[in-house]
Please model this.
Amino acid sequence: MVVDQVCHTPVQAAIAAKVFAGRTRRCGMTSTIEVYDPATAALPAVPPGHGAPEEIVDPVAWLVAMDLPWHEAAHLAGH
Model:
């Protein structure tokens, strides 16, 4: 399994998917919004103080604002 802890943009996710395709059975991405503060994410309710279990995070359904300036340094500095 590959664990990607530096995926910050849709472009980086696409690159990781291409690089690891056929080389690993599973590729996971960690993010503080899903792991540490599920109350601020578009997820079902999780008790306070608990991380979101993998079963409730559906990355395919996760909305990504493709119109954000993902390649601009000022935008990336805020992430």
In short: The mean pLDDT is 75.
